[in-house]
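Quick one: structure tokens for this chain, please?
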Amino acid sequence: MNKYKSRKTNPHRPLPEWKKSVDRDLWEYAKAEFIIKHQEDIIADARADGTKITASYTLQEGSRGGESVYKEESYVIDIDQAERTRQNRIDYRKHIDEAIQFAFHGDRDKETFISRYWWTTSNRHPYIRIALVLEALPFLGRINRNGQVVPNDNFHKWRQGIYEGLADVLGYDRAIKGDIQKEP
């Protein structure tokens, strides 16, 4: 009898909500870099248009009333929205950086794991992300009988520890979903 059950008879159980939240935070961190760059491009384009970006208008007697948006005013609004979004993403990245520092006390290997597993590639396929981690941290891998480098038990323990450490620091309650026992 095969001691390893096939995936058909033992499918992976879905990720608990707290792990999904940590994943979402780490993926958002990676996307924030592109959002910041895009917002900076929007700001530069609006300012480089050559149009005066100070809104000024006067409602004259006899003219149609009501709100109207002038080109200059739309530039000001676009720049303001882009600056707010940009600053929001910068603050978000800073918050996640601080959470990682607090959770792992500046452990460079854990930071490398996080950066390679969540931030280096936009491909969410686990085999690609695992290969990137094992390339940088070979002590988390082993060679299987086909000569391929695959993750060892420590790899999975490290990933679980990262999930748990960040969930605790970011305030995701793991006990609610029954993943850990609450102390009486």
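The chain has a mean pLDDT of 81.
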